[in-house]
Amino acid sequence: MSPVVEAKGLKKYYDGVKAVDGLDLEIGEGEIYGLLGPNGAGKTTTILILLGLTEPTAGEVRVLGHNPAREPLKVKRLTGYLPENLGFYDDLSARENLLYTAYLNRIPEKEAKRRVAEVLEVVGLKDVADRKVGAFSRGMKQRLGIADVLLKEPKFVILDEPTSGIDPEGARQILDMIVRLRDERGMTILLSSHLLHQVQRICDRVGIIHRGKLVAQGTMGELGAVVEEGEHLFVVRTSRVDENLLESLKGLEGVTAVEAEGDLVKVRATADVRSQIARAVLAAGVELVELKGHTYTLEEIYLRYFQE
Fold this sequence. Notes:
Layout: E1 3-14, E2 17-28, E3 32-36, H1 43-50, E4 58-63, H2 72-78, E5 79-82, H3 94-104, H4 109-122, H5 138-150, E6 156-160, H6 168-185, E7 188-192, H7 196-202, E8 205-210, E9 213-218, H8 220-228, E10 232-238, H9 243-250, E11 255-261, E12 264-269, H10 274-283, E13 288-293, H11 298-307
Parallel strand pairs: 3-7, 3-8, 5-6, 6-7
Antiparallel strand pairs: 1-2, 1-4, 8-9, 10-12, 10-13, 11-12
Helix pairs in contact: 3-4, 4-5, 8-11
């Protein structure tokens, strides 16, 4: 994949405060990249730099081959941005709001009407296109925000908390829509969110930012492998859990902890000891129902990085 975003040694200081501090970031064409971090970590500042809305103090950055600081208009033509706090005219309809955005982007009237009709259908607002936005729910406004982003037919889209304040079903629909934009339109998407389970569900790769630095990035498997390094967790389900079984597992070489939870036993070890666990279970005269390695959730990975 050719990179859509390339940032090297990116820094941004505000009155001596380091908002972004030597950040390296690369986002490939056609991927959904999740950017995570606590409040004040530097996510918003990074987004503003990518959009050309603030200049970096130091470092290099390219968005679709353009320097946002020196070529902001070129970047803005190719990039769509959905901010966390949307700004629509409540006394105008959804269609009228989008036509006004099209006018501001100098899209010819005939083409604007075609695009507005198309994007309203894409986001599922075709039937309420002429209803005033003031009567829209939060979820409907978020959909309208995505429609607004799509008007320019961007190649790169930045979505800041796109499901914030939306009910689970509405959030699911928006997440599915984001995936379709990637799959059907080939868009590259940067998703900034604090809802870790949603990021885990749709993102190809994840970057964790802390105090202006990208402390980790990769696929879920890659991030989980780093967290798991030096410690493995296995989940064992058996027909019966008794002291004999627990003592047998505790005695295995490399095992550091054994914890029983009902018919489950969690085994922590310094290496992959699955074959030894299986033999120990059978030797204890207990039926082995299930044995698997633990798959780390994004929340567990995130918390582990910040503990460190």
